[in-house]
Fold:
Amino acid sequence: MIGSVIKLAMRSLARNKVRSALTMLGIIIGVASVIAMVSLGQGAQQQVRQQIEAMGTNMLIVSAGSQRAGGVRAGSGTSTTLTEDDVVAILRECAAVTGASASVTAPVTLVSGNQNWSTRAEGVDVSYKQIRNRGASSGDFITEADVRTAARVALIGKTVADQLFPGVDPVGQTVRVRNLPFRVIGVLEPKGQTQWGQDQDDTIVIPYTTAMKKLLSITYVPTIYVSAATAGDTYKAQEQITALLRTRHNIRANQEDDFNVRNLTDIAEAAEATTKVMTTLLGSIAAVSLLVGGIGIMNIMLVSVTERTREIGIRMAVGARTKHVQSQFLVESVVLGLTGGLVGILFGLGTSVALSTVFHWPQFISPVAIVGSAVFSMAIGVFFGYYPARKAANLDPIDALRFE
Structure:
């Protein structure tokens, strides 16, 4: 029974191929737009998540706060109260913390032979590798002994390696940093650019003790990288670090902190929320064309009922029941919606891949969007086809036979 109804519906649609194709066009455009927009939106969301993860594992950044001099409050980072002992205390006394590394940065000019390059030197501890998810792609990372002895050893980023040692393995080479010779012990794993356009491979990493004593001659630590056990523990770690440093720095209850604790989980959640809103907005705008396509289906089905009034009367005269006539027109409507949806899915996938390739936009093919679009296009066929089907089924056979 169902098979014969589908065959009859397909035959009726095939009689007006161009009209059927134009009717499906609205559904095709709507489904293709939804899939392409959702794909690009979720791709952007995934890229933001990856870039946040690339910055470090469940990371918090403890930085120096501001200080007052003569009643004037200086800017953030001017405080000199963070020390190496604070790093040790955070790792020892904060239960939610699994790693902590001092970070001391300075602009430097590197010289090797007749090549030179200006970049940023970052002094770190051994834990930096675990906290920032960044080890050496070749050679070795700095060791505890390097940190303890303030050794003049360095790892360089890929950009620095390409500039100073083109076509040569930099491991084992010597590079001068502010006229001090440093032995290159490794090349950092490449990270590429951040979403803000900063080249993460344009850097040189050295022991933080070397940076403090031999480059900057300071006794304080400007920044501390901290890694929590899990993403959920970052807030607990933030509270523990704040309480510990306030106690260590003898800050009273009514005084402001002389340090800042930034939780990258907050940044990640804010960025994901923004991209999620944009994805929803783009998907909603694209979904409007699906409704327009549904209205087109209803319009064509009403025209079809009018054109085939006499045919309906003949069918009823030879024994067709109301449900048979209704199911025929309803199936025709569903076939239009579902066929348009399937073609739209193919166009949507092709469009998202093309846009991603041409404009270098991230894209993520969402199975949920594909299945949802197919189901929604079929539902549109049912919803917008029901009224024309009911109208056809309720025709009076005698009046229908008289219709010219």
In short: The chain has two domains: 2-51+270-402, 99-230. Residues 2-51+270-402 form one domain. The chain has a mean pLDDT of 83.
